[in-house]
Amino acid sequence: MAASLNGVFPTTLQEKIKSSKLLIVGAGGIGCEILKNLVLSGFPYIEIIDLDTIDLSNLNRQFLFHREHVGKSKAQVARESALQFNPDVKIKAYHDSIIGTDYGVNFFQNFDVVLNALDNRAARNNVNRMCLNAQVPLIESGTAGYNGQVEMIKKGLTQCYECTPKSTQKSFPGCTIRNTPSEPIHCIVWAKHLFNQLFGETVDDEDISPDVADPEAQGESENSHNDGEDGQAIGDDVSQAGNVMRVNTRQWARDNNYDPETLFNKFFNDDIKYLLSMSNLWKTRKPPRPIQWNNVLLRQDKANCENLFMRQYHKIWSLAECAAVFEDCLKNLRTNVENLMEGDFLVWDKDDQPAMDFVTACANVRAYIFEIARKSRFEVKSMAGNIIPAIATTNAITAGIVVLKTMKILLKDFNKCKSVYMRLRQNPRQQLLVPEKTLLAPNLNCYVCSADPAIHLRVDTKRMRIKELRDEVLKKTLNMINPDVLIDSKGVVVISSEEAETECNEEKFLNELDIVDGVILKCDDFFQNYELNIIIIHTDAEHDCPLFEVVADKDQLKPKEETVPNKKESIADGPSTSKKTRLNQTIEFSDDDDLCIVEEEDECVKGRTEDVCVQTSETEMVTKNTNMLRITFSSPDEPTPAVKRKTTVVDIIDDDVTEILDSDEELGPTKIKRIRVAEPQSNHGSENIINID
Fold first, then answer.
1. Which of 337, 459, 540, 552 measures 20 to 30 Å from 437, CA to CA?
2. pLDDT digits (tens, 9 = 90+) for 254-297
3. Helix ranges (DSSP H) in 285-347
């Protein structure tokens, strides 16, 4: 193709392309476009990996796939389609997870450049660490609607993917979901939990029963609770811990043959009456309205309900239609789960019609009970499935920039590989593609790429178990895969990557193994070639407080100030590099072209650094509001407790620049972070220049 034709590329670049080996991670919207561009440009050897299979909803933007490919491997089909453009290219496809143990540092060292086109943070973190250790340049890319971003990551030269904190996944307190929903998303999350309780993988934190441990419900007389007829429909009992203890929901449903009337009355009548008995909850709230299966609203026109309305995805179903869907889905899902092998379960999928219909019907019935606005099936799918609108042209432009950056990397022209942000509207310099002025320097305090990475872990050592330290802190929060942990002062191994070697420690509390205040834990993930020191800070956590906090230096939020150019240079062409996270409305998305957890479009922020004026929110905490985790980035001069802190306010002028951050989360509309910067005086006058170098 292009590289095989003399004169298309400079001779040096032509030779570099002909001898290059590239890896594409992800074969979704961006991955397909990148593969097509590379093949047409004449790159001779490409490997591509993706674990996903093709879904019908992919076809509107992933043009290497067609209807006959639905259900097949994305990587394999992308390879077959790309070879039709250029049969001379060698393409190797893997239908596998990049996090698998077959793809370690040695695997990544086989390539000249790695191109990321992923849709989740865990995989991005893993590829970032592998490329750092293999010292292979990585090009990270992503899109969200009309916004896009491309950046190069090279060890020692630029910041890595984890140098700046990413917004944590939006979550909701369990008592809000179970007791006092106030938004449609609360009802949707509850309905997804109900699906898992009946048909999927059961998780203790996803119980849908009324939560008597709710702090707002405390102080009530035990006599105020309902009797067995109302609140104890399936043998409920109140434990000393306060939660409603009951027979396994799925087993109870099976015992009742998944009878729609019995299940409906339990979830939407008996449990609601139980909530009403918790009178403290309703002193300042409007109480919910229980509804029974034989209610006139559910029975009206039910005989005339046709399944046609289930295809009207933009229509808000009536209560009668929700009841009909509930009954029909129970029948279908029961059949599906009974066809599984013993021990298997269904997995909720937004593209599985019975599963999606079930969640829509249940969420809308619960919304009616709590007088919350109901949503159409289309809206519920967008919220429950974490969908960001994906636009084919945005993917194509982003993929084009990725390939241009790849060529510059092959020429070792790293200074021209600055991050580029795609915008919906032109700035005053008439730019839709807004480049950074300089390469973003590494964060010297990054707990991944710094010379001696370390964090502080604020934890209740009397309440956290070793198993929770491994699963919640090391794996989920710090993105390790198979860690080994030892107590530095004693050399005692408390967590081993070898199966069953430290299994006896899993249920022990940290303090039982002398992991107390001031202890340093040495963590080593051999697969990622990643080491980290964890300094324990003991704290007595209250019942409703997070069990642990990961505390890092505030400077991890941005590159060191001495690496920031002067003000005129830093704001000349590109967006500010200071990235902030909101505490109360961070939403995490997980679409094929995932990128963005960003802030409200109309929100400006202020803050002061030595060289660049921006606007920041009033807090520098990133909080995952669950009973397990809070992550805090604090200043070394401040006390360790996470507290809100006012920032210095300065004036801002002129242009606003949109910065797209990574997504990963969970529900809600796309949000955009806007940073205003001053337009520099330029000798170019009104020239329209788009420079992506």
1. 552
2. 899 999 999 999 999 999 999 999 888 898 889 999 999 988 66
3. 296-299, 319-338
74 marked among binding-site residues: yes
| pTM attached to this predicted model | 0.59
Q: Are residues 268 and 416 in the same domain?
A: no
Say whether both 422 and 355 belong to one domain: no
Closest of 79, 95, 97 to residue 35, by C-alpha: 79
- Pick out the chain residues at pLDDT < 70: 1, 168-170, 214-247, 296-311, 387-389, 543-544, 552-693
Is 147 within the bounds of a domain? yes
Do 464 and 545 sit in the same domain of this protein?
yes
Ligand-binding annotation for 462, yes or no, is: no
> What pLDDT, on the 0 to 100 scale, is given for residue 603?
37
* Residue 382 host element (H or E): helix 377-384
- 175 in catalytic set: yes
Give residue for tokens 């006959």.
68
- Are 298 and 322 members of one domain? yes
CB atoms within 10 A of CB 563: 16
The two tokens of residue 209 are: 């029963």
Residue 280, domain member (yes or no): yes
pLDDT at 540: 84
DSSP states of 526-546:
TTTTEEEEEEEEE----TTS-
pLDDT at 344: 85
- Tell which residue, 126, 104, 102, 103, has the closest CA to residue 116: 126
Residue 354: give the domain boundaries. 174-217+247-385
- Tell me whether residue 685 is annotated as binding: no
Is the same domain home to 336 and 190? yes
The predicted structure's pLDDT at residue 280? 86
Question: Please, which residues have CB within 8 angstroms of residue 148's CB and are 6 or more apart in sequence?
Answer: 141, 142, 394, 395, 397, 398, 401, 421, 422, 595, 660
Is 97 marked as a binding-site residue?
A: yes
Does 59 appear as a known binding residue? yes
Identify whether the C-beta of residue 303 lies closer than 8 Å to the C-beta of residue 331.
no
Is 449 annotated to bind a ligand? Reply is yes
Cα–Cα distance measured from residue 52 to residue 73, given in angstroms and rounded to the nearest whole number? 6
- Rounded Cα distance, 525 and 323, in Å: 50
Q: Which residue among 175, 322, 329, 613 is the active-site one?
A: 175
Q: Same domain for 393 and 381?
A: no
Q: What is the pLDDT of residue 398?
A: 95
Looking at 569-672, which runs of residues are DSSP E strands? 606-608, 613-615, 621-622, 629-634, 656-659
In a domain, 443, yes or no: no
pLDDT of residue 679: 43
The HSE-up count of residue 269 (CA atoms within 13 Å, CB side) is: 16
In a domain, 223, yes or no: no
Burial environment of residue 80 by CB neighbours within 10 A (0 to 12, 13 to 18, 19 or more): middle
